[in-house]
Specification:
Length: 155
Amino acid sequence: MSYKLIINDKNLDKVVEACDLIAATLSNSIFEKWKINITEFGNVDTGEYIASLQIQKISGGYYVIFSDKEYSVFVEYGSGPAIGKESYIPPFQPIRDWVERKLGYSGKEADAVAWYIIKKIEKEGIEPSPSARNALNETSYIAVTIAKEILKAIK
């Protein structure tokens, strides 16, 4: 089925409103699916990563969905080994805090386990958990569905 929409002075406002509705609905769907995917990938420890997700409408009708956590890119894309090249080596303290919280070690044992994990990440890298990219792929059908309904309504 194809759609033909003639845009003119009489319906321009409706078309602009429809496009904004499509963008807002799709952005919110991606945002919610991203949060679900983070949990499904098992990337929830303190909840800070999910809490850091934001959605903002910027000029021109665009929406930006992002995390302001510096490590979010490594969660999403992973990292390769750091041996022989400059790459990601995580900071000590967050790893040590995780070792205490999740593994129950403390003191010098927590230090040793944290350094072991850091060295393992340096040597082997981190596997990606593409929760944002998957959210985009999993919700792309929504834009088409909404657009078809709106086009029918404003004809």
